[in-house]
Amino acid sequence: MNHLDTYDSSIDRPGCVTVYALLAWLGATSYICGALFLAAISLSDPDAAFGLIFA
What we know:
The chain is mainly α. It has a domain of 34 residues. It is built from 2 helices and no strands. The relative contact order is 0.07. The model has no long low-confidence stretch (mean pLDDT 76).
């Protein structure tokens, strides 16, 4: 039974790594999109951008 438990955990671990990698990728993507969004606003209206950042 112990052997089966270790076998199951070894199968599970790559799935967890995949989930964490996906979450990290989503976080980075949303962060980059947010930064680009703020950059676009700051180019067109700097006062509004500072209001968003420091609100």
